[in-house]
């Protein structure tokens, strides 16, 4: 059924293409949001990505899944955009880390008083992810936000699953060194 | 304690173990080791904790309302007003110029050969000035072999013998010209076809 819709979209059927947009825009927008860290830019980028997909649809071969292809175009677009932005030095969102280091409670605690801070934890972790180098952030977002396996990520990025594993491992090492001081105090007790 | 040797060997696989991406053999070794090694178990639990934190922190937000419609509006706009194409594509320019040049050269060669042939046959001598354009006159002169040379070669005899036939061919000169032009064009058809296909 997906195949048929895809064929129709390739032949210029606007209904079929809108089906593809509807089923993928949510994921692409969230990927863009995490990568670009700005809702307006993420919205524009999502539009640009789908325009790109639309114009390249007839080049799509069935060697990979549609979603893999969508992710590949999206990831390349976003990494390009980040590279350009870095080159032009147009902007750099970088909230000082100090602002959020007031969190003292160990988020691993199951104490309801601490659970209130769940939103705060999300924010801190989110910002730590934002500070990762682009390539590390890409794999982290694809794995933890988009829920993709190493194999799928490898196919999207054109690298081996082992490389994906290495990148995730290194990214997590960075995150840990960033986050450990924040919830130290309760001591590291393995989560229980 | 599982001992440092096992720790060093198995630690690098901890990440893959957590994501269930390990081969069965190492996975079992890892599980056994984690049963006995407190340090690795601690490390494993910390990593799992970070996993949980990341999964819960990196949730998806709802996308802006109207995003789908905006995308579709823009993609339809592009369909309705395709971007204007340059009248000639740069990447195809060499091919187009090349095939054009081949056409012109072949045509020129045809004209020269025909005019030379007609001159040789002597049929159109009186019309020479009219038939051969001014810029070809110097070249056409190359075919003018002195009569005594022809005599000595016995070529005049052959020409005389072929006279009626040559006359007939010469009478087809105009048709022959058209035929040659068509052949010239056909030579360049593959080039043009490629160009047309690439631009449409
Ligand atoms: Zn160990």
TrEMBL record, chain A:
Q: What GO MF annotations does this protein's record show?
A: DNA binding; sigma factor activity
UniProt keywords (A-Z) are:
Sigma factor, Transcription, Transcription regulation
Please give a single GO biological process term from the UniProt record.
DNA-templated transcription initiation
| Gene3D superfamilies named among the record's database cross-references | 1.10.1740.10, Winged helix-like DNA-binding domain superfamily/Winged helix DNA-binding domain (1.10.10.10)
Q: Which InterPro entries match?
A: RNA_pol_sigma-70-like (IPR039425), RNA_pol_sigma-70_dom (IPR014284), RNA_pol_sigma70_r2 (IPR007627), RNA_pol_sigma70_r4_t2 (IPR013249), RNA_pol_sigma_r2 (IPR013325), RNA_pol_sigma_r3/r4-like (IPR013324), Tscrpt_reg_LuxR_C (IPR000792), WH-like_DNA-bd_sf (IPR036388)
Q: Which Pfam families match?
A: Sigma70_r2, Sigma70_r4_2
Signal peptide coordinates: none
Looking up PROSITE patterns in the UniProt record yields: HTH_LUXR_1
Does the keyword section mention Transcription regulation? Answer: yes
Query: Which residue range or ranges hold the HTH luxR-type domain?
Result: 147-174
What does the sequence similarity comment in the record state about its family? Answer: Belongs to the sigma-70 factor family. ECF subfamily.
Q: Could you tell me what this protein is called? A: RNA polymerase sigma-70 factor (ECF subfamily)
Organism (species): Melghirimyces profundicolus
TrEMBL record, chain B:
The answer to keyword Transmembrane helix applying to this record is yes
Which lineage do the record's taxonomy fields give for this organism? Bacteria, Bacillati, Bacillota, Bacilli, Bacillales
What InterPro entries does UniProt report for this protein, alphabetically?
Anti_sigma_zinc_sf
Keywords from the UniProt entry: Membrane, Transmembrane, Transmembrane helix
Identify this protein by name.
Putative zinc finger protein
Q: Which residues cross the membrane?
A: 92-117, 165-193
